[in-house]
Structures are given as C-alpha cells and as structure tokens.
Specification:
53% of the residues lie in helices and 9% in strands. The chain contains 25 helices and twelve strands.
Length: 687
C-alpha cells in the first residue's frame, strides 16, 4: 500500500489538461472531498500529516508570526531516523482537549511487524512513534520509488505543499491568520496562477510515482492541509484498491462520521488504513473506516460533482455572519415596535408581517438548498437575497391566514419549520448540510442530524404547534386524558426526531425537550412542579440519553454516531475529558464580557419570574367567572411559551453552544408568539 500526501489541492484545481494524473486517477478510484479541520480555523501541512498519525484533531507548533511552520527536519539517531523537533509537537498538544496519542500509527505498525518506508518529512510525521522515531526506513527523495514500494508493506510519500504566495510556510510577518469570525464574513480568496503551477508540479511528481507502481498496489491520495491561513476548504481525496480498479466505473468514498456521499474527514484516514492493513483498531479515535459506493458517472462528471459540493460550502460560509446580523437586527426591531404598538393600542398590519418575516427566515435558509443557488454569480450575496425573498413569501401567506384565525399565521410557519427540519434530518440532512443555519462541512462540525441552532427552531416550532392543538382541544372540551396523550405524542415525536442516532443524533437536546414537555404537562394540568419532580425528571432525561447512547454503542463501531462515542468514553474512562472539552467550548463560545452582561440579565429575569409567579400562573389558567376577561394569549399558548423558556435555559446548561440557544429562542420564538398576540389584541380591541 502507498499513501501519497500533499496539501493545498482541491477538486476545482483538477483538470485533464493541466493535472492529467490527478484527473485520471479518479477514473479508477473512490473519490471524495476531504475535510482537514484541526483545532484552528485552517490546517497547516505539519498538522495535517500528524492527524494521520493520531486519528484525532492534532495541533502543530506555530511558525514565526503565527504562520504555518516549515516542515520538520528528519535527522539520524541511534542507527535510525527521527523528527528533530518532536518535543515541540508534544508541547503544542499538552492542552489539546482531544488528547491525541502522538505516535499511535507508528506504534501500531511496529507492533504489527509491518515494513514501513517514509519518503519526505510529512510522511515521517505520519508514521513516527511516541519518541518521534520512524519505525522503518526513511528516504529524503523519490529516486528508486518503485523498489522502495516493492520492499515495504506500506510506503508513505510527501509530495510537498501547494501554498498561496501570501501565506508561505515559515512566513516571518504579516501571516494574517483566519478565524471563525472572519470566515463567517469573508469570501475565500481565489487561487492565483502561482498556486495552480504548484499543483501542476505535484501532479507531475505523482505521475512519476504512479508509473513505477504495480497496477495492483493500493494507493491513497490525500491533500492533508489548506493552501492558506484565511479560509478552510475541503481537499482532494481518492483511494484506489483492487475493488475500485476492477469495476468498470469509479466510486465515491463514504464514512460514518459524515454520512454524506463523497465527504470524508482526515480523522477517518487512520481507521481506514488500519482496516486496509488489517491491524487492530485504535481506541479513542473519532473517525470511521471508509467504504465505497459505485458511481455511474464518468470521471469528469464526478470531478464536477465534487467541485460543486465544495463550491456550495465555500459560498455559504461568508453569508453566515451577515445573515445573523440582519436576522437579529430585524427580529429585535420588529419585537420592539410590536411591544410599543401594543402599549399604545395601535395595530399595524405591517408589523405583523415583519414578525412573521423574521420567524420565516430560519426555514427559508433550509428550503433554499432545494435549488443550486451556489451556481449563481456572487453566490453568497445571491443566497442572502433569495433567503429574504422566500421568507417574504412565507410571511405573506402567514399574514393572509390570520384572517381566519389569529393563531393560523404563526401556526403555518411553525408547522412548516417543524416538518422541514424533521423530514430533512430523517432523510439524511441534505438541507442542513452547507446551509447558513446548519454547518459548513469544511468547519468540521456536524455533517448530519440536527445542530444546536436548528434544534431550538425545531423544538420551539413543536411546542408552539402543541400549544395550538391543546388550545383547540380545550375549546372543544376534550377529555383531560386525550390532552395528556397529545402532550405525550408530541414529546415522543420531538425526542425521536432529535435524539435518535439515525436521525437527529443530538445528545443535549432530548433532556431539554423532556423538561420543556413536562413543564407543559404540569402547567396544563394546573399542578405544582416540585423539586422532587424536577430531580426525577433530570434523572430520567440523563438516564434516557445514556440508554440511547448505549444502544448506539452496541452497533458496529464504524456506524457509531457521537452518542455511541460518548458512551465509549464512559467505558474507557475518558468521559471527564469529553465533558471538560464541552464545558470549555461553552464558556469560550463568547467573550467573557458577554457573559458578564448576560448572566445578570438572566438572574434578574429569574428573580422577576419568581416574584411574579402568581400572575404568570394566572395566565396559564382558564377563568371561570361569569364574564371572563379576554386574554391576548390563550392559556395553552402561554404554557407553550413557558415551555420554550424552559427549553432554551436547560439546553444552555447541557449543550456546548453557549448563547446560541437563548438567542434563537428570542429571534425565532418571540416573533411567533408576538405575531399571534398582535392579531388577537387587535381583534379584542375591535370587539
């Protein structure tokens, strides 16, 4: 087997005329876009190579001025060879929350008695053992590569890095490193001619190697790092085995860690090599072995498809920041205007439209992925414009529906949102993938299921729909057991969609959902929720999620979602490090100053809620007087609103997304309720 690595090569660089060997290889290989995300926003070559070694996100020491460091030197040592500055890699990962085992692949190869050859310093990083020594032979150049491969079970080759001229390795000043914040606003820089020429050089060297290999050799090609330090991109990946070569058509590589056709992660490469070499699977790594799906398209059509997928991801990323700013400003402005109008008893239909427009924005970001918007000129701006147009259309429909019932407009948006998100998760998350409110694959976050911001939108929509149904059942004098059964069915639906490993695959969501639905149940039944009840609910929620994780853990390891991996961390004793990593993400998700502002506001809100609890509870109950006072909110709609508040604050505690959950509750949930409230308040005033 030969593993040939390089960096900075994307599928949109591949062309039969300029890079013939990279293009031709795709004809008889399983191809994919490769996500190379490490701990930083972008990945440096040394970090990418080291991730092959550890199977986890592994940091590399910074070069001068925060640039990517030069590749390490390989020196003679005790009759063998080793990485000269190996200790600096250990130091760089001393505080790494993933706890990578540096030297894992090297030790596995040594214990399996595999004859190993490394060609180039990147290859040496990939196969080094715990001490930084190469457990085999090291070669500094490609001469005699044919004989090297014949004499070894595994040969790893470093073909060099294609780097953007503004970000050379070891740059002393002006490195201009990227960040998650910058990536959410700035489009990716175009590849200059100098970078393309470097890719051509890599292709030429690849041709020299492939011409000297036995046709039955298993060959893995991987671009392990980005070409610059500003924007992360998915990279070139292809693997040729006897099975892919013998088929008349090529294939796409897949993995359980992404569940997306033709999308794999660099952390999947180690378990894939272990599978191909028939060596024991390393414990504690997060990737999954790859498998291959035959693809009837021609090699060029497959390259076009992979380029298109990467283009969608790159185009969506810089639209995220502007979308959330516009979303927040518009939703908050509409809420303030609605509140002022309510206090002055003024009823402007345009304000209702604005509230529904804000509530329709999240589902619009998903629906837009039904069309290839990324192929439009200025795709990131086109994306924003189209999202706003779709939201305006949905808001228009919702506004018209309020003619029939004051809850109809908000119910339309909530039901549509709930159905779109649940169906998308059940069908593979193709709308969530590379969307503004989902995750962009090059960031290495979620590739399937329901992530944190969509979770709040889905759960809030479900609670609002439940409130409307309970309100209808109460008006129809439905028996209490039927209303309890309705709450139970909504809760089961929401937990299955969000928590099932094969659908939502969300660990932190179901406990928050359970607390929210229990609060709805107790308030609807006009029962007091005591501390004993709360304790039992928490135990039930945590126990239920550990149980689901256990069921996921019992599946084959390559099929685990992160729920199964969490249970495995309990079994292996690494659960505290996982919790510590999640907690660190939670508290560092926003600057400390933001927490210092938000936490006092939250404390004040809790104090007001406790002090005014009698008045709040009064809003959740039907008045039985001879002439009951009309209410802006029917009791069950108030109960659903309280359920949403419980949801976001419990979710804040058990998730690692920081203030995303309460923020989405305000920006999406409140416009739903306020839109319905304004219509009802106007009708009460008219009456």
């Amino acid at each position: 087997m030969v593993v040939i690595g390089f960096s900075g090569v994307q599928w949109n660089h591949v062309d039969p005329q300029t890079t013939p060997h990279l293009a031709a290889f795709a004809q008889e290989a399983a191809s994919a876009n490769l996500v190379v995300r490490t701990l930083d926003t972008t990945t440096c070559p040394d970090a990418g190579w080291l991730m092959i070694n550890t199977g986890l996100r592994t940091a590399s020491p910074d070069g001068p001025g925060g640039s990517c460091a030069q590749m390490p030197a390989v020196i003679a040592s005790n009759g063998g060879t080793r990485i000269a500055n190996w200790q600096t890699f250990n130091d760089a990962n001393a505080s790494n929350a993933y706890k990578p085992q540096l030297g894992l692949l090297g030790r596995q190869l040594y214990e399996a008695k595999k004859k190993v050859a490394a060609v180039g310093s990147g290859a040496a990083l990939a196969v080094a053992d715990e001490s930084g020594s190469i457990p085999g032979e090291y070669f500094s150049d490609l001469s005699n590569i044919g004989s090297i491969v014949k004499n070894h079970d595994m040969t790893v080759v470093d073909l060099g890095a294609a780097r953007h001229p503004n970000w050379p390795l070891g740059q002393k000043e002006g490195a201009l490193a990227g960040s998650e914040f910058k990536a959410a606003f700035m489009p990716a820089p175009k590849a200059p001619e100098d970078l393309i020429n470097q890719v051509k050089g890599i292709d030429a060297r690849l041709g020299e190697i492939l011409s000297q290999l036995d046709p039955n050799t298993t060959v893995v090609l991987a671009s392990v790092a980005d070409s610059d330090q500003l924007t992360a991109r998915m990279q070139y990946f292809a693997v040729r085995t006897a099975a892919t070569k013998e088929s008349d058509v090529g294939a796409l590589a897949n993995t359980g860690s992404t569940r997306q056709l033709g999308i794999v992660q660099l952390t999947d490469l180690l378990p894939t090599l272990e599978k191909l070499l028939n060596i024991p699977y390393g414990k504690g790594i997060t990737g999954s072995p790859m498998w291959f799906s035959l693809d009837e398209r021609s090699a060029q059509e497959r390259i076009t498809y992979l380029t298109d997928v990467e283009q969608r991801a790159v185009s969506a990323r810089p639209a995220v920041g502007p979308f959330y700013i516009i979303f927040a400003l518009f939703a908050l402005s509409a809420l303030v205007v609605a509140f002022v109008e309510y206090r002055r008893r003024r009823w402007n239909s345009l304000t209702v439209f604005a509230l529904f427009f804000a509530a329709a924005l999240p589902v619009s970001t998903f629906l837009l992925n039904l069309i290839p918007w990324w192929q439009l000129p200025y795709a990131n701006f086109a994306l924003l414009g189209c999202v706003f147009l779709v939201a305006m259309a949905l808001a228009g429909v919702a506004s018209r529906l309020t003619i029939f019932n004051h809850l109809a407009g908000a119910l339309f948006i909530a039901t549509l949102t709930m159905l779109v998100l649940s169906l998308d998760a059940a069908l593979g998350s193709s709308l969530h993938f590379s969307s503004i409110m989902g995750d962009q694959p090059q960031s290495g976050g979620r590739f399937y299921g329901i992530s944190n911001a969509p979770f709040v939108v889905f759960a809030t929509s479900t609670l609002f729909a439940l409130g409307v149904v309970l309100n209808l059942l109460r008006k129809k004098s439905a028996p209490i057991h039927l209303r309890y059964a309705t709450i139970f069915l909504f809760a089961v639906f929401a937990v299955i969609i969000d928590g099932s490993p094969s659908i939502g695959a969300d660990f932190g969501g179901p406990p928050a959902l359970l607390m929210a639905f229990v609060a709805v149940l107790f308030l609807h039944a006009e029962q007091r929720l005591g501390f004993v009840h709360l304790f039992l609910i928490i135990v039930l929620g945590v126990g239920g999620m550990i149980g689901i994780s256990y069921l996921d853990w019992n599946r084959p390891e390559e099929d685990w979602s992160h729920l199964g991996r969490f249970f495995d961390s309990i079994v292996t004793g690494n659960v505290l490090s996982v919790i510590s990593r999640k907690f660190d993400w939670l508290i560092t998700s926003v600057p400390l100053a933001v927490w210092l502002i938000v936490l006092p506001i939250v404390a004040m809100g809790i104090w007001i809620a406790v002090k005014k609890r009698s008045k709040i509870l009064d809003l959740t109950r039907e008045h039985t007087g001879a002439v009951p006072a009309p209410k802006v909110f029917p009791p069950d709609i108030v109960i659903a609103l309280i359920g949403m508040v419980v949801l976001v604050f419990v979710g804040l505690v058990v998730n690692d997304s920081g203030l995303v959950l309460p923020m989405m509750g305000v920006l999406y949930g409140l416009p739903l309720w306020f839109g319905a409230a304004k219509i009802n308040a106007r009708q009460i005033s008219d009456n």
